[in-house]
Amino acid sequence: MNKPQSTKALLLWFFLLGIFDIILQLATLPTGMNLFAGVGVSSLVVVFATSAILRLQGIPFTAGTSGPIPSQHNLILSAILAVAGLAPTAFLADLSSRIKGVPDFFLQTLADSMPTTTPEIIIAFLAVGVAVPFVEELLFRGFLQRALRRTWGSWPAIIISALAFGIIHMEPWYLFGLVGVGILLGYIYEKTGSILASTVTHSVYNTISFTIMLNSDPFAPVGQYHWWDFVLLGVSVVVLVKFLPMLHSARSSTSSS
């Protein structure tokens, strides 16, 4: 099949895979499984489903992870960029929530699912900080963005994969923030040619975000911005602008294909 056809097929496949992932997560709730544990389980199932679909198409599963091993320089920058990306994407997510409004059922589910015991907290951190970043980077950057880049070029691939990343989360009240995260991760993958670099960013980002969630009240009313919020936002943007160009491009001929 030609490239435009394969790209359309891939977009449809990701849409169906995203619906399947959400249904699977919802199916775990009546079982009494913690929401975050359910996210981890559904991520693993999606990996196996992806592997099976790829095998049917004659595509090796390792194709999504092909690329150079990032240098220590790139890994450190990836972690720094994750921290710097927290304030801008949180601002975008807050903007979305002020426009759309966060439904009560979501806040209640989130509050009920917060881990309280040490084993629950460990499982939640493994799911949010390890399993989810690996699976999502494999799918959205390793497969989807690579395929889109071959057809439409780098920036359209980054934007479309980021939109898919945001939409498939099925949280429209945080859509701007999710797309912002997707663009950051997509740029890091595009610049380094390695999903390991974007996975490190994703993992650090999720781990810090989840730590903040553990110590926050999901029902707390939306407050007004203070001057220090804008200072933090400004510093974060400066760090992003300063450090993003410092990523080393090390894409091999295999990963750029």
Beta-strand residue fraction: under 5%
Order of helices and strands: HHHHHHHHHH
Give the N-to-C terminal Cα separation.
Answer: 16 Å
- Name the helicity range: over 70%
Low-confidence stretches: 1-5, 251-257
Q: Tell me the major beta sheet.
A: none
What is the mean predicted local confidence, pLDDT?
Answer: 82
Radius of gyration: 18 Å
Overall, the morphology is globular
Helix segment tally? 10
Key features?
mainly alpha; globular; single chain; disordered N terminus; 257 residues
Q: Would you give an account of this structure?
A:
This protein is mostly helical and 257 residues long. Helices cover 74% and strands 0% of the residues. It is built from ten helices and no strands. α2 packs parallel to α6, α6 runs antiparallel to α7 and α6 runs antiparallel to α9. It is globular, with a radius of gyration of 18 Å.
